[in-house]
Design brief:
Arc Repressor Mutant, subunit A, 12% strand, alpha/beta, 43% helix, single chain
Amino acid sequence: MNDQRLLQWLWFAEVMGVGANTLPALSLYGSPGALLAAREYEDLSPIAGRAQRSRLHALEPEQMAPRLARCRELGVRILTPDHEEYPVAFRLLENAPAVLYCTGDASALSSTSMVGMVGSRRPSAYGRQAAQKIAGELAAAGVTIVSGMADGLDSEAHKAALEQGARTVAVMGTAPEVCYPASHAGLRRKIETQGAVLTEVPPDTRGGPRFFVLRNRLIAALSDALCVVEAREGSGTMITAGYAAKYGRPVFSVPGSIFSPLSEGTNQLLGKGAKPCTGADCILRALGIDPAPAASAPASPPKLDAVQKQVLAALGPTPKTMGQLSADTGLPAWQLAAALTALELAGLADQLAGRQYLLRGGAVL
């Protein structure tokens, strides 16, 4: 796509705003260029609000040149609805993103089978284990895992896919140059090597809660099915489940304790018709994939440096705080944190709420 067309799409995205209803304008005019030509002589009030019409007349595509240059500086690809790697599922949304900003391998957005996995940012050990198990089994079957790269169960799903060497897609609610949370910078780089990181928020845009709610619709739309692992009632995870149901995607929910607030949402979904999920088989069958495990060579053990081995040796089945691990190893906080992140990405350690860490089941020196 030439720069002029890209500038027109960036202009259209800026005119409409993030999360705006773009379908009427695109259905009626077909392209930003046609809308640009019509603005001088047609009444656009049926497809654009007052603020949008004001921007439509005040802005010119050429004013988006700094944004295009910024994307190239950041190594961010711009995907538009007439781009072959723009997800087909998004084209059907009333509020389809006019522009997507992508890093990594954009072809991951068109994977044959994609499952969204979402859940609490502060999960229980049970939730983490469930996310690891289900996402790992799905990834081993060739499914691309879609999530939001947030703390907790989102990141567990991404890590499980990475450990299987499978594709994974992170949909963010921030500008493309922002890694949120910042502690997931290493995880993001790994995702970009095996999949893609996606956002509709333009570069250098200040974040806000609204963008994360809008992000949830993209996770749901991109996924062929959605699995909710652990969620509180009324949480953002439940909003994602609502979008999935609206878009006709099958919703799966991991049953939880009736005494746990973290299972209020998942158990509520079961009462509303979500399918119970205790493993990947039920999701795979819904996608038309044979759940029989494929034969594979045993995975090579991860290579650890001396510090990482020292921290791993200090971990056990009982959660330990950063303070306890620092006392056990004698390592400063910055070195300890780096080693723990490496162990998490290697699938050898788990982080619980309150920055407590424990050995993942089956991890050995």
